[in-house]
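This protein record is not my work; I was only asked to verify it. Would you go through it and say whether the fold makes sense for this chain? Here is the record exactly as it was handed to me.
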Amino acid sequence: MSYISPINTRYKAPITSSIWSRDNRVLTMRQLWIDLAICQKDLGVHCIDDAGIEELARNKENIDYSVIESYEEKFKHDIMAHLYALSDLCATGKNMLHLGATSNFINDNVDMILVTKSLKHIIDLLYKLIEVLKTKSIKYKDVPTLAYTHLQSAQLITIGKRFTYWNSDIILDLDGILDLLNKLPFRGIKGTVGSEDTILKLFDGDHDKCVSLNNKLAELYGFSNKLLICGQTYSRKYDLFVFQSLSSLCQSVYKMMNDIRLLSGKSEIYEYFSKEQVGSSAMPYKKNPITCEKICSLCRLVINHETNMSQTYINQWLERSLDDSAIKRIIYPDCFILTEHILTETIKCIDNIYINIPVIEKSVDEHLHNIISEHIIIAGVKMGFNRQDIHERLRLILTNNSSSKGNIDFTLDPVLKQILEENKISMIPQNYIGRCVEQIDTFYAGQFGI
């Protein structure tokens, strides 16, 4: 028996796991070799012919991993192993494989192809999450709830405002990933140290053909940004940008899930709890926010891999060293698979969340004597009283250890009594939600790009 990672088994992510699968990577590598040969032939490299290209295409899906592994054990070089394995299948095509290319023509371009496909799927999930949060925002946009500062009751917002607050951060992350997607470049074919010397010689010194080859390849794979400057690899700064974006997104999700956990502890919000679900092996009454807790745990893993990538970037010596290879093999698929799972679970959690309106209304009512204090201060100042004097009178009453709704009597203070009587201070919660409804409507009216 051997260890099986919970990533993509317990924490499933069908789309990104397919993108980063071994089969898809090998097929992408082989297609890249074929496309290189096709573009080079189109640009006049006469040693490449249609018969060889057709042979390569016919055998693209003929993958024998035992052969590849045998070659890698022999050569201690992954790309050479793949080259030999494909060459064994193509008597004619093998002569036109990898002309002017290096290992990182394959590794870097394949990585960037898989990264952009993964980001596009993450973007699709973000649009779904934003829509689910928007639905909750609109549904509860005028329902008062306690806001908390320092985890203590503060003033009122609406339930919809809180969903909108979470959504505003998710939208920032979406905007960042959309920008990143446009910036990520196709490395193309740049030679062993990025000088394109080998390609220039292949084209007998024709600089225009070097440019055309890189343009053709980038266009084939849907990249508008083409890398002009690199060493043997594209700068690992681009990888760092990707992990910063995934980390930032997971930070936003973590914040939202953690808030829900806190509100669950106050019985204001609950995750969906199925009929036969068990919350505790010892305490049968428990309804723990296990999905939120799981999501927070997985988010921490993705967030911390940003540091691993920053360390990888700063340790790339001169034109390149190989200490980026092993860690990228692990953290790229892991982080994308986890991010897909995190977003999928978050969408389901938000979509099925239970808002405990009776508890929220009771809590609002119990704290209303605190909530009206700001209104009393404003009204008193308008009447000509000193703001700090009113504040101190309120503070002495409201911070008394015995103060609660049942024994608060502002009218015992003559100044506060006058303010209350002359201004008819409201005790209706909806009168203390400020511009929450207007803020939500404005936010979703299109100002933030959705």
